[in-house]
């Protein structure tokens, strides 16, 4: 799941400050458990790909990392 979102950021489909799909949308679109979606967003946040703003959602970081680690 994190790999899919990371790929969308790297390809330019999701640009800095764009919102990433909500947990509910990730669950519906990819057929994963909510916990899986939550873990993917948390991983991307810890890697610096996304930021989360309370009560607003998660967004692509202004300057995402340039090289993606091979995880998630």
From TrEMBL:
Keywords assigned: DNA-binding, Transcription, Transcription regulation
Keyword Transmembrane listed: no
Cross-referenced PROSITE patterns: HTH_GNTR
All copies of domain HTH gntR-type, residue ranges: 1-63
InterPro entries to which the protein is assigned, alphabetical: Bact_HTH_transcr_reg (IPR050679), Tscrpt_reg_HTH_GntR (IPR000524), WH-like_DNA-bd_sf (IPR036388), WH_DNA-bd_sf (IPR036390)
Protein name: Winged helix-turn-helix domain-containing protein
